[in-house]
Amino acid sequence: MSVLDSFGALVGSIIAALVMLVFAILSFFVTVFIVDAGAGVAGFDPSADFVVLSASLLAAGAITAGSSPMSGLGAE
Question: How high is the pLDDT of residue 74?
Answer without folding.
Answer: 62
